[in-house]
Amino acid sequence: xxxxxxxxxxxxxxxxxxxxxxxxxxxxxxxxxxxxxxxxxxxxxxxxxxxxxxxxxxxxxxxxxxxxxxxxxxxxxxxxxxxxxxxxxxxxxxxxxxxxxxxxxxxxxxxxxxxxxxxxxxxxxxxxxxxxxxxxxxxxxxxxxxxxxxxxxxxxxx
Length: 158
Fold this sequence. Notes:
Layout: E1 8-10, H1 24-30, E2 32-34, H2 36-49, E3 56-57, H3 61-69, H4 75-85, E4 93-94, H5 96-114, H6 129-135, H7 138-142, H8 149-157
Antiparallel strand pairs: 1-2, 3-4
């Protein structure tokens, strides 16, 4: 699957105080927007691994990511992703929206690690305009908010 910063868009909530109470998984569920193509691709993958209750079990997460990104995704990157979203050794079951947000984050991690952007260009130029506006001056926007370190780390990684 070709990697892109525009296939998925992350946004900040209108009321930033919401970031004080939600978890990284809640953020990925509610503030990630997919292009129609990514929606279709991620839905097919979700349906391949989902259980009878139409939920995706976290034990299949690495396997599903490897099946879509093949040689580009490493176990080290997976561990970093799990750290960003607070997914330790505990088992989870995800709805499609959460799973899609995790895959979008995975795509970002791979994109940044492969350096698919020109070093002379500003990396922000390749992102969606709404996302650029939301994340411009992120540290200033988060100043004064009691956001968890995990959430801050996730937002900075995007």
